[in-house]
Each structure stands twice: as C-alpha cells, then as structure tokens.
Write a structure and sequence with these properties.
about 25% strand, globular, Aminopeptidase, about 30% helix, 9 helices, alpha+beta
C-alpha cells in the first residue's frame, strides 16, 4: 500500500527491481557525509536476502512525484532483542521531514517485534548514523535517542605488499575451505565476540548466508579479522576511515533505565512535518 506524504511524495516497500537505485542512494549519502562511496551493491543484496528479513514489511522507500527514490529505511531484527533502524535521505531532500518519518516508521515496525522477545529480556532499538551526518544525529536526539557507542571502520593504504608474517611455533595459516571450515570459523567468531557490547548470538545459517553464500565471496582473498582490537589495527598502520555513531532509545524512570519493551506504547507515529532536520 502507498501512503501519501507531503504533496505528491509517496512511500512503499522496495522491490528487488529497486535494488540498484537504493544502493545508489546509499552511496550518494556516503559521499555527502564522508567524501567517498563505501557501499557495495552485494551488501544490499545480502541484507535483503537474510533469512529473518522480510522486504515487504521491514524496508521502505520514499519517492518524489517523478518516482525518484530519495529516502530509504530498513529495520533489522536480532532475535527480537536488538532491533536496528537505519535511514538514508538524499542530501538534496533533507530538512523536509523525510528522515523523521522514516525513523518513526522503522520504530513502529520494531515495536511490533517486542511481544516476540524471550520473557524477561531487555529489548532495545538502535539507530546507527554516520558521524558526518549532523542532521541525522540531531534528528535522533530530538526523537529521544541517546548516543551509545562509536564504531570505527579502519583502513590502510598500501603501496606495496606487506612483509611475510612470522607465526609462532605450532600456528599456521591457510586458505579458508568452504564446506569444511564453515562451522568452526563461525564458532570462533561467536566465541570471540561473546563479551562484546550488547552481543546477541547469531544463527549459523544467517552467518553463512551473509559471509559465504554471497556472490562476491572469494575464499582465496577473503578473511575474517575477529579481534575487534582497535589498537591492533593501529599498530598495523591502519587509520580510522569513517566513524558511525550508534544511538539507543532510552527513557529514565525512578528505578533506572526503562526498557524498549515499556517504551513500546509511548511513541505513536505522527505525520510528516514540513521542516524537520533530516
């Protein structure tokens, strides 16, 4: 169903036929916020193909009267415990309320997942945004989100091959063998990140679809660095190429911080406003 937004703008679920236009929109936002593209079409294809993702109910695009896609939002669900709402608005169409509308649409969908959460767990909604998107960060703060974490994408510019590594006795490295190393690699990654902030265990089938069954996976060159240690990357000569800020929706109560489960009835969706920040 298409809902009317502003004058002659519309919103609907994307289709696979939109995938290249949505990827182009995300890249345009990346260029505006950090000066260079950084999103691969295959990443979007993987996101839309996740076993627990429904393209018809978990994503939205905003179209101009000329049917140009200028907004995109998506809601990802991690076991009904951690819910992520991510929005992108074309730089030329910001400050018109599109970002606010999409963020609220995504949160409305996230609220629908709350009853499916295991009993007694804390359910949270997160909204990551590029550190270069000032309007997006201001929008989230207005909506009641608080900054929870910074995440860095580390990068190194290499003009020559790195020196040959010297491994400790008994340690060796070889190419990943699909079909043989899948489960063991998955278990190592899960164990490595089990103490990471807010970690929710991933299902093996989801991990395999995201990492191995994608069209651009090449075991001869792909690898998984599972340390998560920024200092290690810096010692290797890497630098912070981009930063993403994750915002968490919270509400103070007498007893402490209110969970998203309790927030679920307190944030009704409202229509577009003419001059929101994103």
């Amino acid at each position: 169903m298409t809902n009317t937004l502003l004058k002659d703008f519309s919103v609907r679920a994307p289709t696979m036929g939109d995938i290249e236009r949505v990827a182009d929109l995300i890249d345009t936002c990346e260029i505006a916020e950090r000066g260079e593209p950084g999103f691969a079409l295959e990443d979007l294809r993987v996101d839309w193909g996740k076993p627990d993702f429904n393209l018809e109910t978990d994503a939205w695009v905003v179209l101009t009267p000329e049917k140009r896609i200028v907004g995109y939002a998506v809601m990802f669900n991690r076991e009904n415990v951690r819910l992520y709402v991510i929005t992108h608005v074309h730089p030329e169409y910001r400050n018109r309320g599109i970002g606010t509308y999409l963020a609220r649409l995504g949160e409305t969908r996230a609220r629908q997942q709350v009853p499916e959460a295991p009993p007694g767990v804390r359910v949270s909604v997160f909204n990551p945004v590029s550190s270069g998107n000032d309007a997006g960060r201001a929008l989230l703060e207005r909506e009641g989100y608080s900054l929870s974490r910074h995440f860095w994408h580390m990068q190194i510019d290499m003009d020559k091959a790195p020196p040959i590594a010297r491994w400790p006795n008994g340690i060796g490295v070889r190419t990943f063998i699909p079909g043989q190393d899948d489960r063991a690699t998955f278990e190592v990654i899960e164990e490595t990140f089990e103490d990471h902030w807010g970690h929710v265990p991933m299902r093996f089938e989801t991990w395999r679809q995201m990492m191995i069954e994608r069209e651009d996976f090449d075991p001869s060159v792909d690898s998984q660095n599972t340390t998560g240690a920024t200092r290690l990357y810096q010692r290797a000569g890497m630098r912070v190429a981009r930063q993403y800020d994750t915002y968490h929706r919270r509400s103070s109560t007498q007893g402490g911080t209110r969970s998203y489960r309790r927030l679920s009835q307190q944030h009704p969706q409202v229509p577009f406003r003419d001059r929101d920040a994103a």
